[in-house]
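It would be a great kindness if you could assist me with a short task in structural biology. The matter concerns a single protein, recorded as an amino acid sequence and a row of backbone structure tokens. Kindly check, if you would, that the fold set down in the tokens agrees with what the sequence suggests. Thank you for your consideration; the sequence and its tokens are set out here:
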Amino acid sequence: MLPEATFAVAQTGANAPHEQVVPLSITLLFAALLFGLVLCLALEEKLHAKKSVIAGFFAIVCLTLGAFMELLPFGEVMLANGHFVKLPVFISAIDWGVVTIILGASIFVDVTSKTGLFTWIAIKLTKLSKGDPLLLLVYYGAMTTVFSAVLNNVTAMIIIGSLTAVSLDKLGRNDKLLGFLLVEGLLTNVGGLLTLISSVPNIIVGTTAGIGFVDFFVKSSPYVLVVTVITIWLGARRFGIERLAPEEKAEAAERVATFDENDGIESIGFFWFGAVMLVLFIAFIAGASFDSWAIGKLGMGFVAMSFAMVMLLRYKAEAHTFYSAVDWDLIFFFAFLFVTIYVMEEALVLELIGRGFAPIIGMGEKVGGGLLLLVAALASSVTDNIPLSAMLAKILTSGNFQTPADSPLWWSVIFGANLGGNLTPIGSASTLVAVTIMHKHGLEVSFLKFVTLALPFAIVHIGLATAYVLIWLS
């Protein structure tokens, strides 16, 4: 039987800071709710429930219990101009910067894809390979990494995976499809490390730590470049993907020449407009990293929403079709998740978990950082890496740790949360999409078979990430 104990917390929020004592029994109750949330998210498919519904249910339960047990600060919130406004406590709990980045970037990418730009790039690279399987793997692998950095991982996997299946079928190389799709699926998570907006864990952890877009890219790009090359090389050796024999080159080049990269382009003017806007989008997102600039003061969420609105001018009469295509399940999931994490923080659950991580972090930035990366990778391989990232980010900023922005511990969480998705097919949405495409084309890949095929790659990815964080980023 656990002894009855209490934690003291200085609550800041709606009213002036005040001290509140939370009994350990209540903290454990909310810890059980957090465990229930993670478990339900892991069993999302078996429960036949969307993650937003799961998170929403737990958010309602946590808010209700938090209000009933008087854990939450209610009252007025002071704005920057000194005025007070009364807001529901769950509104201030949501990180609106993260929500607007995801919402704006999703709409921008969706509209930009209508220009035919991404398909044009993919087919151009296919024709450039002249049908050579090894060159095709190199080009598609590099394209997967880049697309995952500027799009979201799922969109990148859908575009490249679908084109891969069509290309290999026309080239008569369907026997190599499994190898291509596996390498591409793994590289979506590697490419997801390239920029601050490449993946949701990056956005959550990076914005919490105060890591700028440019700083993020400079520190992560060497690892991504090296691991992309190694993954393509391992994939070529593992699946026997080799250069064409001299007598096969002419026939393969003739088949590839029938591909038409202009099929998806409705308007050449809109095509070039989309290309220019994509370059400007990346440039302005990078500029938002500098707080001294006007754009930096408005934030990356403003940049993402602004570019989304500019692109929507082309479809101003049909904008609702793009709104309906937004992954609202993900948006609401985020909102509810932030609320739940906020209540957990007030109930001192994060402080309790932080005490569990304290021995690991206390081992120092090198040993502790390595262990934290491994723990994050293993945890994200079996459950959603978004709540994991949000929880660890909160713990690293808690009063016990107050981790500085230049600490490698942040990078341990970022690398672990992203790369853990390469251990299992349920570790990330993009690897799940890769397996779905495999099944669609008659490749029966079970959970165990995926783990068996992906494990050597994942070990290399995580091992190199650990060394990179501890040696290069420390």
Q: What stands out?
A: Confidence is low (pLDDT under 50) at residues 1-18. The beta strands are 6-11, 18-23, 76-78, 84-86. DSSP finds 23 helices and four strands in the chain. Residues 132 and 244 are 6 Å apart (CA to CA).
